Protein: Dihydrodipicolinate synthase family protein
Organism: Micromonospora musae
Amino acid sequence: MSTYPDANLISAVPTLFDSEGALDLGATKAAYAQLAQAPLDGVFVAGTTGEFTTLTDDERLAVCAAASDAFGPDRTYWHVGAASRHQAAGLTEAAVERGARRLAALTPHYYAATESALLSYYETLVARAAGVPVYGYLFEARTTTSVTPALLARLVDTGLAGVKISGAGSAVVGRYLAALDGRAVPVYSGADAEFAEVVDLGAAGVVSGVSSALPAPFLEVRDSLRSGDTAALTVARERARRAVAATGQGNLAHLKAVLELRGLPASGLRAPLDPISPEDRRALEADVADLL
């Protein structure tokens, strides 16, 4: 097989809350400190896995700052995307003031943004970032905002340093890569289970929510891709797929239950989702025992 020495694994990290739903910054810091022991290429903070839509701006900045302390500023992507250009621009400026060296911004959400609004949104964020790299973030299923491959190329031309594409399989990621027509812009996929597939197409790697709780199998995939070890990659891919399946495709309640298995404090959800059932918790514990 080919070798992919630049294949990267970025973990999308969760935010931990207490039993009343208040931000538990101490538990969040503990989770980040534990994960920072793994040789990840970066962490994506206060994104979908981090339940960012439920956080205040101050909470988002505090969580991102905590990650920067744990992983170092060069490995921390502060998510500053918001429903409006106004809010995202304010978060961008505040993040830069706090020392952010990498930013990421989801497209505007809830209202389906027009092409002109998208271009203005990213032009503004790139300008407000004052030289700090800004990565675009596409997730049509959660935002209602659709970005065609051709439009992505125009968005990249606003000065984006890279792109994350979530909710799309490797075939769709391939079409985005083709539309960029050789631009030297890293493209990341949010498809945890397709790490090898998207890298083979030319993507820079994955931004993986499941790896925030179960980093080992995804690091094994990354290292096998870098070394070109076919046999090791076969085993690692199966282990990574098991991790994705065991956590319900990265279900937040399941991920937080795995963190408990790793000795971290229990965390509730702010997102309007059901907690993990006792039956699912028992099955999860058995399924991930050799993946921790």
Notes: Residues 230-246 form the longest helix (17 residues). The chain has one domain: 8-288. The chain has a mean pLDDT of 97. The chain is about 45% helix and 10% strand.
